[in-house]
Amino acid sequence: MKMLKKSAVYSLFMMLMTFVVGSSAGEGEHILLQSTTSTQNSGLFDHILPLYQQQTGTEVRVVAVGTGQALRNAMNGDGDVLFVHAKEAEEEFIANGHGVGRADVMYNDFIIVGPQSDPAKLKGMTNVVEAFKKIATTNALFASRGDDSGTNKAELKLWAMTDIDVHAASGSWYRETGSGMGATLNTGTGMGAYVMTDRATWIAFGNKGDYQIVVEGDERLFNQYGIILVNAEKHKHVKAALGQSFIDWLLSDVGQQAIASHKKDGQQLFFPNAKSSL
């Protein structure tokens, strides 16, 4: 009886070990990438991440939130790599010991979109600060993400150049959605409000209606994306080697070409410019 019991226990143990090992082998290696709604909504990750997994065997799992939230998540150790677009905040993240190095990866630009009726008469303007002043003085509706994202940070920096207190106007002509870029565009088009968006999300956006680009071309609308490895000395569970491998791939000729080849309706959404800055 004792021998039978031992045999049964051993058989059960071997079955469990086979299940665990088989499950682990089936899952493969993966990293967690904290990134933005603009990179996700534009379809960039659907385009490049399968290529990376095919070439390396490593899966990249994306958490797509506003840049501010992505930074906070990474500060808490919830991620291996950070891929966002707010350079000052990224540099502060590194200065505070949360990240190891930073590199430019790609860029595009921000634009202002609005309805065909164009109540503030912005169509064709290239000075975004003057355009914002016209929105405020005409009390035309403006939908802001209001979510501390990279887009929201850039927008508020531009409003600061106008000396207009948009927080005092909150709830009147200035509306804060607290949502991602795609959701804010949906809200803006629904209420007839102007919206500041990154060009890639706008190109990929499927609910344009009668909306059009009304302001573009100002150098202050430049939109740089950077990538950072989360500091494994601060968060021991960070997969530093795998994370760095992904960063190296993105910055390589192969990764940069993958970014450049991502197009929608024949339009390139992001422009690679890999360069280490820290």
Would you spell out the secondary-structure blueprint of this structure?
Blueprint: H1 2-27, E1 30-36, H2 37-41, H3 44-56, E2 59-65, H4 67-75, E3 81-84, H5 87-95, E4 99-114, H6 128-137, E5 142-144, H7 150-160, E6 174-176, H8 181-191, E7 194-198, H9 199-204, E8 212-215, E9 222-230, H10 240-251, H11 253-260, E10 263-264, E11 267-268, E12 271-276
Parallel strand pairs: 1-2, 1-3, 5-6, 5-7
Antiparallel strand pairs: 3-9, 4-7, 4-8, 4-9, 4-12, 10-11
Notable features of this structure?
D-Maltodextrin-Binding Protein, domain 2; 278 residues; disordered N terminus; alpha/beta; 12 strands
Written overview of the protein:
The protein is α/β, with parallel strands linked by helices and 278 residues long. The protein folds into 2 domains: 10-108 and 224-276, D-Maltodextrin-Binding Protein, domain 2; 109-221, Periplasmic binding protein-like II (D-Maltodextrin-Binding Protein, domain 2). It has helices at residues 2-27, 37-41, 44-56, 67-75, 87-95, 128-137, 150-160, 181-191, 199-204, 240-251, 253-260, and strands spanning 30-36, 59-65, 81-84, 99-114, 142-144, 174-176, 194-198, 212-215, 222-230, 263-264, 267-268, 271-276. The strands form 2 sheets. Strands 1, 2, 3, 4, 5, 6, 7, 8, 9 and 12 form a 10-stranded mixed sheet that branches. A two-stranded antiparallel sheet has the order 10-11. Helix 10 (240-251) packs across helix 11 (253-260). The longest helix has 26 residues, at 2-27. The model is unreliable at 1-27 (pLDDT under 50).
